[in-house]
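Fold this sequence, please.
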Amino acid sequence: MLTQNMLNQERKKKLRWFVAMSTMPLLGVLTAFGLVPSSSLGINSGNITIEQLSLPSAAPVETAAATFWHTERVQPGDTVAELMLRLNIKDSAASNYLRNSQDAQAFRKLPVGREVQAETDANGSLLSLSYLDKQGDQIVVRKQGDAFATKTTAPQLEKRLFVRTGEIKSSLYAATDAAGLPEAAANQLTEIFEGDIDFHHDLRRGDRFTVVYETTYSNGALVKIGQIQAAEFINRGKSFRAVRFQTDATHSDYYTPEGKSLRKAFLRSPIPFSRISSGFTTARFHPILNKWRAHKGVDFAAPMGTPAKATADGQVAFKGVQSGYGNVVILQHQGNLSTVYGHLSRFAKGLHKGERIRQGDVIGYVGMTGLATGPHLHYEFRVNGQQHDPMSVALPNARPISSANRTAFNALANKFIASLNQLRNTNLAKLD
């Protein structure tokens, strides 16, 4: 009985083994059968040949030394050591070169925001460093043996056009910032349309603008915000449009699509983006003299040192100090027109009597000299020596597009106006 039981158990073991083997993957089956003696499989062992194969030795793989690239921008208050630390440069020889070499002087004077790229090895040793100088040239510092050398190459300049649209919700400052319009282009926008739009009083919530402006890139890095090529400003439902046209090799101007010059002979304001703190009036209580008197000009409140610009082409008739005006500049313009700029903190460098001035030239800087309680610019517009309100007086226009340039201008204007129409409709669709 015991023997019979033992035989039954042996059969069960073999059965379990067979079932287990049949349910394994193919590779498992082959492996399992490899463990079974050949005699149990009915194979003649005399027919089996076993040959030992030797694997070829693996050839050594040559791997290049790893290098790492890091990019950083110059931060306010940065030192050479701080910038090198962020670039992961741990190299005393490189530090000494960048700190002291005459060839690396431009690196020590990089402006805030300028991008620097560095290549290092795994230990932080500097292999190469590159950046753009203020002229847009590509500067490359490269390791050569145990020393460093600097190479300068001319910039590979590329012109690009960018488009920005915005809507006035609180202020022009906020709208241009929200639209991503650079400050330089925003200032141009006000200068282009300031002869038609009073940016101090006329702006309304819902006014819109579209700007096409040029930028210059060098080796992929932005180096300059260029001129606005076309723009539209919708103020109180009325559309004002401008197209830039190069009249000759050195001069350009802005015109309406019909060819009328947008540049007035006089600008409304000598300071862009400024607040009028005191307007033109025949009766104002003077804060210093403590009595009522006429205020025959406009006061523009602005921070100390803000540049004051000539509102028209002219000639310096007076530069110096005059009683309540403090430091003052008087410009004589075409015919019987003149302008006055008072309370200046200082004059533009080199400014002298008799000098020819172009519209937009800086003639001085905002201050509070003379009878002034705070920094501002006192501005007067005179006709035959008599003051008139510069914010309301009719300003003469500049010359329209010439007949010689009419064909070229029309082709350019049609191209940009078509783009403005498309962009305007797209913007309106988004707003709706």
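Confidence is low (pLDDT under 50) at residues 17-51, 427-432. The helical segments are 2-22, 26-34, 80-86, 92-100, 172-179, 183-193, 406-431.
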